[in-house]
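step 4 of 6: structure.
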Amino acid sequence: MRDVAIIGIGQIAVGEHWNSSLRMLAAEAIQLSLEDAGLEQIDALYVGNAYGGTVSSQTQLGALIADYAGLSNVEAYTMEAADASGAAALRTAYLAVASGAVESAAVVGVEKSTDMLASARVQARSVSLDADYEAAQGATLTALAALLMRRYMHEYNLELGAFEGFSINAHANGGRNDYAMFHNNIKPGRFAKAPMIADPVSLFDNAPDADGAAAVIITSLNRAVDMVPQPVRITGSAAATDTLTLHDRSDMLYLKAANISAHKAYARAGISAKDVSLFELHDAYTILSALTLEATGFAERGEGWKLAQSGAIGLTGSLPISTFGGLKARGNPAGAAGIYQTVEACLQLRGQAGANQVPNAKTALIQNLGGLGSTAITHVLQI
Amino acid sequence: MTANDMNINPSYVMHPDRKVGIVGYGAYIPRYRLPGTEVARVWTNGLGGSPITEKAVAGLDEDVTTMSIEAARNALARAAIDPELIRAVWVGSESHPYAVKPTSTIVAESIGASANIQAADWEFACKAGTEAVQASIGMIGSGMVAYTLSIGMDTAQGRPGDALEYTAASGGAAFLLGPAAEACAVYQGSYSYVTDTPDFWRRSGEHYPSHGDRFTGEPAYFAHVTSAAQALMDMMGTKASDYTYAVFHQPNVKFPSRAAEMLGFNEEQIKYGLLAGLVGNVYSGSCMLGLTATLDMAKAGDRILMVSYGSGAGSDAFDLTVTEQIEAVKYRAPSTQDYIKRRTQIDYATYCRYRGKLKD
């Protein structure tokens, strides 16, 4: 296996792109990443997309996007793992380049959510749940997250306000990110009073669906050092799965796949949790943030929420998270979320994060989840 | 095409050969008011707030026909002309009582117009009334006729529990247009901007409209209202500060306020015409009603920009100058504020009865 590095990054603002189609969003992000890398052609394109088939009535995105991005005839196809599709595409590209089969690859995460009204989108996105045992019963991802959060609050005797620090931090960081969907701050105390979507998951808890596309260009580290001044090394990459349904888990409040993939990635990178400078975690719901911190070695069980109360997760804290707003404030363009995380981690490691810069960022951890931790893909990036 | 791809030719501004103006105008707002808090009480347990304070609701014996007649009578009273001189009666609405059978013929006969008229009902979502005004300017401006009556009136539909239910309201206005020499406000130029943008629609046979959530904002309302307004101002060689007042289509308070700000207008310029907070969204009557309230407060020499918006989608923009005649006509009929102050509050259950919301 060869060492692999990221040599180009590109992203477009997350939001509602009424005048752009899925292919246009993807092509623009790829173009930006190619320009950043100083390249015009690559050998393969891996697409992360979750809901093209159900929301945009479009599959076979590899051929479509390669054509529109001017990457004629390259190897190209889609990786799908619900909201972890972006990281799945990154890991596929990583494996292809590390094996030596592919010299350079583009990875684009793209989602076009606003092709469908919000009411219809809820159902379209429920295809990532268990069709027989969850979706058919009327469950949605947010409803299941609410069950998880309620159970956590019951087990650890917590009030809703215990989770507010995650959303306050995300919005504070998103407010300084031009590519973020939301730029408003959440005032302390407002979180617990926000309108409910699925009690106890509220509007200030749930990351918003959005349109977006982000891309990275990777190649072997040997080539990378001659091509760009600051190649970002992918030193760890690992994926794991858990049961698709919550009810099949013996312990609902433990994200096993998140734990396994994180520790495999640490081992490959030769690091431990204490070496991490910043963590772009999958904060689609605050309950996922709390459980992720517990599963990945940053908090004891039942204590993940405490990190959000202590200021530890701020840009100058001991473990900065969601440094550009996370899924909550930057927005959650499903299959693109994992690549936005990657682009943001690269900006931190390159020292190009501007007002959101984490001091002395050397090692970034990224974890992208599909569903409520059914898929967990973790990457370690280092400069 | 999208609203961003505008290719404005200065000749697109519409100037008739003969100058045309508003000879008489009239408002009508039914007396019943449903507060936004009542809708919220029923549908959200009082949480989430309301986009407006309250909306006007037509009573059991009111519909677009009766309300159009009321507004037309006010316009006729201000114009003080013989109704037999009117040569066209046009009613723009999304709530015509009949699918087939004109509202306009009932209105024409009720106000004493002769049979020597054109009469038709217009439909272009919320800009059906201003579309009729554009046609009136053409008819009078070309010398074909002397006077026309253009009405925008609605008993707007909103599905129970939908976001539109807070705002969908009843009311509107009538404009009697004629030669500039007799007018209280003269059209300096007008312009229309239209694209195929499906933001809000109601299919044949359906009782309530559908809409595209936030798609109704940026690519729909704002793109068309600001494009039409800016294009007209560019062609007229004017800027926001050249106008005393501006009136915009008002589905709520936020949209017209933001459109005004985007175009460079301040709060003072829109305050008399922005009625949505207390009246609601009267669809085809929306900015036409706002213009009546503005004319009620206007003085000779004031310049007014008016921009409608109809989903589907398009905007009509008008540049008006108020004349000395305004002082003679404004007190001949009830003011729009008189109608706003005439108010009987109802609860949600009464609203359901008045608007026929309960079905077997």
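step 5 of 6: annotate
 - The mean pLDDT of chain B is 95.
 - The longest strand of chain B covers residues 185-197.
step 6 of 6: archive
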